[in-house]
Structure formats: C-alpha cells, structure tokens
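Changelog-adjacent note: as of this version, every example in the card shows the full chain rather than a window. The one below runs 133 residues end to end.
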Amino acid sequence: MIRVGYWLGSLLLLTVCSKVEPEPTAPMSLLDGYMQDPLAVERGARIYSGTCAQFCHGAEPRVGEDVNLFDCQWRFGNTADEIFQITTSGIPGTRMVGYGNNFPEGKQDLWKLIAFISTKQPECETSDTLEIQ
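Full-length structure tokens:
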C-alpha cells in the first residue's frame, strides 16, 4: 500500500512539475486590431473617401500616381507611426495638411484611416528595413 501511495505521489509531482507554461503572446497593436475589425476598416474607408480621396489622393490605387497611398513608394515615411505623424502634423512645403485630432473620434479615427490604407497596400518593406530616397 505504501508503494502505491509513493508511486501516485511521484506521478502527481511529475505531472505538476512537467507542465509547460505557454509563452506569453505580445499584445495586439491598436492598428492590427483595427485592421482585423471590418467596421473599423469601413470607417477608415469613409474617412479616406471624405477627406483624402476628394482632394489629393485617388479613391483607388493607381500605378504611377505621385500621391498614391496604395503602393510602396512613400517618400516621407511608411511605418504606421510615421504615417500617423504625417496625418496628424502634415508635411511642410507640400499640400499635405495635418488633421490633428479633428475627426469625431480623434486619434482613433486616424488609426482607422491608417488601417484602411494598410489593408489596401501590398506587403511593403518599412523604412526600418528600407532606405527611403
């Protein structure tokens, strides 16, 4: 009887000690969350249509367009944070004005706009890995 208790105790201890803790996953970024949310992407599309597409940028991707936001040829930055900064502050000496936090949902709407643009772009190298000319 003692052997059975010893054996069960050892088995229980081995089972408890051998459990592998799952690796913690990195939290999803706000942009990634919006890119996976169809309602957020749709809101970003409406913002784009009502602001960007009506003035400087086309409504659909067009090859060779200087201000095409749907390609990989961005001169002023192409990471999400750079796009956010450009959209917020603008680009001096160009037609790109900054929107600040002037959308109804403030910065959240800017991230939804970036989510829409990002879902329409091909896989691009970011300025972290690409020298911008």
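Structural remarks: Residues 129-133 have pLDDT under 50 and may be disordered.
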